[in-house]
Design goal:
Elements lengths: L9 E5 L2 E7 L10 E7 L8 E2 L5 E7 L1 E6 L2 E6 L3 E4 L5 E6 L4 E7 L7 E2 L6
Antiparallel strand pairs: 1-2, 2-3, 3-10, 4-11, 5-8, 5-10, 6-7, 6-9
Length: 121
């Protein structure tokens, strides 16, 4: 069993917000899952992307987002959860004047991400 202390996650600053990884194969604490937190700045959105090798579960902790899943749009508030099947294009945009914070979990310890360069939203 591996425990990760608050000072040990991998933090990636992005133009739209922050990804904080707590569990993954790269961190050495799981062979089967990735777990982390995504923060999107007010009015910003992450790029349209998909994960070809794993499902994703996204749970909104604070704030609200518009989340595109394929061609459907969903408004998610704190406490809402969305399940994203492997290979489905998706994207989130923070709504309102507060940042959106989400817990994100993947069914692979080696999460792959493809960015949609041809059809950004």
């Amino acid at each position: 069993m591996n425990a990760v202390k608050g000072s040990e996650p991998e933090v990636l600053e992005m133009p739209w917000g922050t990804l904080t990884w707590h569990v993954s194969r790269a961190l050495g604490n799981s062979a089967v899952m990735t777990f982390g937190r995504a923060t999107i700045r007010p009015g910003m959105k992450n790029p349209r992307h998909r994960h070809p090798n794993c499902d994703e579960i996204l749970h909104v902790i604070t704030g609200s987002i518009e989340h595109w899943l394929g061609e459907e749009s969903f408004i998610l508030q704190a406490g809402d959860t969305i399940s994203i099947p492997a290979g489905v294009w998706h994207q989130a945009r923070a709504l309102g004047e507060a940042e959106a914070v989400m817990a994100i979990c993947f069914s692979s310890a080696d999460r792959e991400t493809e960015i949609d360069e041809e059809r950004p939203r």
